[in-house]
Design goal:
The complex is a heterodimer of chains A (523) and B (177). Chain A is of the alpha/beta class. Chain A contains 12 helices and 17 strands. The model of chain A has no long low-confidence stretch (mean pLDDT 98). Helices cover 51% and strands 7% of the residues of chain B. Chain B is built from 7 helices and 3 strands, in the order αβββαααααα. A 3-stranded antiparallel beta sheet of chain B has the order 1-2-3. The longest helix of chain B has 22 residues. Classes of the chains: A alpha/beta (523), B mainly alpha (177).
Chain lengths: 523, 177
Amino acid sequence: MAAKYDLNDDSVVVIIGSGAGGGTLANELAQKGIKVVVLEAGKRHEIGDFTNNEWDSFTQLAWSDMRTTSGSWRVHRDFPNLPAWIVKAVGGSTVHWAGASLRLQEHEFKVRSVYGTIPGTNLLDWPLSLRELEPYYAKAEDKLGVTRTNGIPGLPGNNNFKVLAAGATKVGYKGVHTGRMAINSQPRDGRGSCQQIGFCFQGCLSGAKWSTLYTEIPKGEQTGKLEIRPESHAAQIEHDAAGKVTGVVYFDTEGKRQRQKARAICVAGNSIETPRLLLLSQSSKFANGLANSSGQVGRNYMRHMTGSVYAVFDRPVRMWRGTTMAGIVTDEAAHDPKRGFVGGYEMETLSLGLPFMAAFLNPGAWGREFTSALDSYENMAGMWLVGEDMPQENNRITLDLSAKDKWGLPVASVHYDDHANDRAMRDHAHKAGGAIYQAVGATRVFPTPPYPSTHNLGTCRMSENPRDGVCNKFGQTHDVKNLFISDGSQFTTGGAENPTLTIVTLAIRQAEYIADQMSKNSI
Amino acid sequence: MMDQYRGDALDRRRFLTGVGSAALIISGAAVIHTDEAWGLEVKNLTPETMRTLIKMARDIYPHDRVADRFYAVAMKSYDVKSGTDPQTKTMVEQGVARLDELARKQHGVAYVDVGWESDRVALLRQMEGEPFFQSVRSGLVVSLYNQKEVWPIFGYEGESASRGGYIHRGFDDIAWL
């Protein structure tokens, strides 16, 4: 029932990437009768292919194509060629995400107005308000089956959550619950309910967690309008003399160069590959990269203020049992500059298996100070802190001309430095997390540095004025009318919330806009 | 310790090789563990080199409840790789030689015979920034902690989907809060 389009069919919409943005957009357009080709660099797995083994799963799913890094962030020191932990497969990072589905807060759409000028930052208001997005957020929550919306009960609390909740309540926090999660707490939408398997990051073997791989994509294929081409790596976007994009050059499953013509192109390769592709598509007309008259393509890279807190108790917790992230404390997400920084952060339960704990608890550390922590693994509880990091123009993706990938293309290089606001927020969050665990008897608390980034945002941001960003409020690039940004690269700022729900929301709205523009022959 | 007695020759050799390496001895092309009763044959490195690697591995990531055999399994790949990659063989042999040189200068004996862990760790710190140390350390993160047989020692239960997840197996059974 899936479609199959000719390479020379220039009436199709080509979407690059099949994750939260690309996969959702593909289905939404197909449901409206629009012909869609999705080029996905990764393989297509089935649910049964997933494995409950952290390193095997990493090998199976993670984007491990060469990347380089620079900057003062610790990821550059500890993981110089792994700036991000994201997925290379049909479904994109929705295959391995934890399912946390939060709306951005109202003030987070207008941080330049609310926070003011913060030296060293490139803060900007979104050209969108929460009110405009609300109907689409509602559609997204229904699509994903987010718990605590649409009459869906919250997930039950696992051991890790119980420790968090007991400590948070004792400290005086009020916003404590098992989260708004895109994980079925009861059967819904043809998928079963959560079995508390505890390997959410390795692909959900029960299908209870939403992923475009087994929801949007098969639904889109059933319309007969959607064709997914896995193992198809986009290398360049071409345009005509008038400056309209005309097609995508890509390497197919056999490594052969192909060209798919297009009526419109939507780039959803996540926030490192999307700007990379635009930069690789430079031409005499677009000397700084496609759609880059602003110079902002690749810039304002955000990865959220993140960090973790793990705590050891004198009795077992067994935090690995059950959902990885169904637990949250929301109180610190508000903007409260009295704490010494702008913006806020969420506190969410997190667990790693023993193999990953050894790798990420304190990268590079060795000796008894480190091993005594792992000796208490069974008695550990853990949380992840995710907060708003400051957009800085020099945090950016560029092409590394000295490093080429297997196709001979310059790889992406990621530069990042923490802003003082990020450091102040992280220090506060580490202390607050530690206080939660100490309130219920933690004997030892570990502040853990950020992992390779799972949230990657802002590198082709929305802006009101074309000089400040790359695309408009619909993700349509300022420079090229039939070229769209369809992933988290669009985010003008990051907010304190996990981004997937907002990415899906923007895709639903963008599909409406694209269909409308096509019906008027504006595209 | 009395029931580990296996004869005069073994006993004498144990005292000759020193307290630090009491359990790991060399016999032919193998490292033998007299207490845990296993042997690891090497093809491309000398058994003395492998014994040093095993000792080094435990000193880098010491877990008192984890038997030597897990560290040996973790280091075995260096012997394998030394057979196909001359650069690895050189790095390991030169690294071990340098470690022994430091040990002899500061303690008068080879690394494996330096009696106190804290003294051996101090020697390792002197090589901490070097490629050999970093290779062993970073390799251990996976080669030690990704052994399935090691996991139960830490209480980690591993794979769960085939057992129906944890929904009926204690996902929320914490009782002491």
